[in-house]
Amino acid sequence: MRISDLQKKDIININDGTKIGNIVDVKINESNGAVDALVVERSGFSFNIFSQRGELLISFNQIQKIGEDVIIVRLENS
């Protein structure tokens, strides 16, 4: 799968069903070349007056499922 394929998918939090945002980049481990995390730009629906707008790192252990249209993640505090 290409990064461009991942960028087309919505990121959804399985805990509350909210759309977190979309992938804008990936973080790669320089020592072994593995992808450590997805860099997600938060959508307007995933933050409120008390949360920060901007980028969010989602590590691969937080990913529950990569589907055809969405990526389901488990975030405690999105």
SSE blueprint and pairings:
Layout: H1 3-7, E1 10-13, E2 19-28, E3 35-42, E4 55-59, E5 63-66, E6 70-73
Characteristics:
78 residues, mainly beta, six-stranded mixed β-sheet, 1 helix, 45% strand, globular
Report on the structure:
With 78 residues, the chain is mainly β. Helices cover 6% and strands 45% of the residues. The protein has one helix spanning 3-7; strands at 10-13, 19-28, 35-42, 55-59, 63-66, 70-73. The model is unreliable at 45-51 (pLDDT under 50).
Nearest-integer average pLDDT: 84
- Rg calc: 12 Å
What kind of sheet is the major sheet?
Answer: 6 strands, mixed
Cross-sheet strand order for the largest sheet: 4-3-2-1-6-5
How many separate helices? 1
Shape: globular
| Spatial gap, N to C terminus | 26 Å
Low-confidence stretches: 45-51
| Count of DSSP strands | 6
Indicate the structural class.
Answer: mainly beta
Write the H/E string, N to C: HEEEEEE
Beta strand %: 35-45%
Helix content: under 10%
